[in-house]
Every structure is written in C-alpha cells, then in structure tokens.
Amino acid sequence: MKKQDNVLYDAHTSYGHLQVTETSYGNEPVRILEVNGQMESAVYLRPEKADELVFPYTRLFGYPYALFPDLKRTLLIGGGGFMWPAWYLKHSEDRTIDTAEISPDIIQAAKQYFAGPEIFSDSRLRVIQDDGFKWLRESDEVYDVIINDAFIGSKDAGNTPADLRMIHEHLSAQGVYMVNTVSAAKGLFAWRGRRLLKAMHEVFANTEMIFCEDEDDVYRRQNLLIIASDRQLNTEEL
C-alpha cells in the first residue's frame, strides 16, 4: 500500500486479509479489492469510466460470446467485486450468470464498494456463496460457459484432471471452459501455462491460449486466458 492510498475497509476474515483501497492504476483513480495482498477486483472512480472493466484479462472474458453468440448460460467461479457479472448483464439482455464466491465478506464488499447493490437484485444473477468447484460437483446444473477466475493465494484452483473432467460434464455439448492463469507463454516461467494447456487438451477437443497484456513478451509472467471446448475455436478471426 502506498502512502497516498485511501483505505476504505480493512479486515481479517475467514478467507484471508481483505482490504479495499482507493489508489491509482494505469494513471487512473481506482478502487481496488485485495485479498492477502493480491488484487482481486477494481473499479474506475471517474464516473465516465465507471462501466469499463479495469483489468485487461476481464475485458477478454467476452471472447466466448464473440465467438459463439448462442452461448446463454454462464457460471463464474470466483466473484470478487462482481465487476464482470455487472458488465456481462449490462451487455447481455438474454443471458444469465451464476456466480460462486466463497467469502461472504467479499460479497458484502462487492455490494458496498464495487458492483453495487443494484446488480444483486437482477433476476438474471444467482449468487452462490460456496466453493464453486465443490458446489458444481454436487449439482446437476449444465452451463454454456464456465469461467474459472478462482485463486487460492497465487495458485490456480480447480484445474486438476479430475476437476477438468467434472467441469466438462457440466458443460453443454457446445460449451466453453475458460481459465484465467498467471504464467509466461515460453521459457522458465511457462510451466504453469503449459501444464494447464496440456491437461485441458486431454479433456477437451480444442484449446487456445490468449494473451491479456503483452503478446510480444512471451517470457514474462502475465495473465493468460486458456479457452477449451469440443467445438472448433477460431480465436484468430476476432
């Protein structure tokens, strides 16, 4: 935290140290949600940018819907500040989204400081306060898109071979699974992305890796999105 940061909320919760601060990000004033020092969500403070997504990787969560407009029903695992569900619902009149967030304190912070209470009254949003992977294993729900944005500390969650097979079972025949991971694409720091890509390709017919920040620097760790589906993925056309 920098000296000029304005701390709005600071608490030790059952799921880690939760802090909400107002600071700057990319030379823009923002409000940041951090859990154990890791940035989880953000919202621009300037009113004219309030509906824009701050983090580049969240802007790319729209890839599956651009590829396949027929995708209607989504599960997001890892709600954070609920900024992505808020954006998704504002731009998708005929789509629904279930959002699993394990921490009640984070859900409350999302209502108070980020997405706002109005999004939680939208009938197209269902909030699941639970471990998303545990909940999915015990449910009979089927989705067109499952987005995994859940982290335990800095480690990816829910991407074991058993988890991937379970996720595949909960997708429609033409469904898409998308994971946010932090990895380099090549070199010493690429092991996480390569391992995940290989594991997903053993379960799904097609996989693609999308750079979220700097496609020219393949050796730098950054947010990467890995998309998997049994239908053909033509991401280069977008």
What do you see in this structure?
With 238 residues, the chain is of the alpha/beta class. The strands form three sheets. It has a seven-stranded mixed beta sheet, sandwiched between helices. It has eight helices and 13 strands. It has helices spanning 56-59, 63-67, 83-90, 104-113, 117-120, 132-137, 161-169, 191-201, and strands at residues 6-13, 16-25, 28-35, 38-44, 73-77, 96-100, 125-128, 143-148, 151-152, 155-156, 171-183, 206-211, 222-229. The model has no long low-confidence stretch (mean pLDDT 89). The chain folds into two domains: 6-49; 56-237, Rossmann fold (3-Layer(aba) Sandwich), CATH 3.40.50.150.
Structure, briefly:
The protein has 238 residues and is an alpha/beta fold. It has helices spanning 56-59, 63-67, 83-90, 104-113, 117-120, 132-137, 161-169, 191-201; strands spanning 6-13, 16-25, 28-35, 38-44, 73-77, 96-100, 125-128, 143-148, 151-152, 155-156, 171-183, 206-211, 222-229.
| SS strand fraction | 35-45%
Please mark out the parts with pLDDT under 50 across 5 or more consecutive residues, or reply none.
Answer: none
- Helix and strand sequence: EEEEHHEHEHHEHEEEHEHEE
Per the CATH scheme, the topology name of the largest domain is Rossmann fold
How far apart the termini lie comes to 38 Å
Task: Report the average pLDDT across residues.
Answer: 89
Q: Could you state the CATH homologous superfamily of the largest domain?
A: Vaccinia Virus protein VP39
Q: Based on CA inertia axes, which overall geometry fits?
A: globular
Main β-sheet, spatial strand arrangement: 7-6-5-8-11-13-12
**How many structural domains can be distinguished in the coordinates?**
2
Sheet having the most strands: 7 strands, mixed
Q: Helices and strands: which structural class?
A: alpha/beta
Helix content: 10-25%
Radius of gyration: 17 Å
Tally of helical runs: 8
Number of strands: 13
Reported CATH architecture of the largest domain: 3-Layer(aba) Sandwich
Kindly provide the name of the CATH class of the largest domain: Alpha Beta
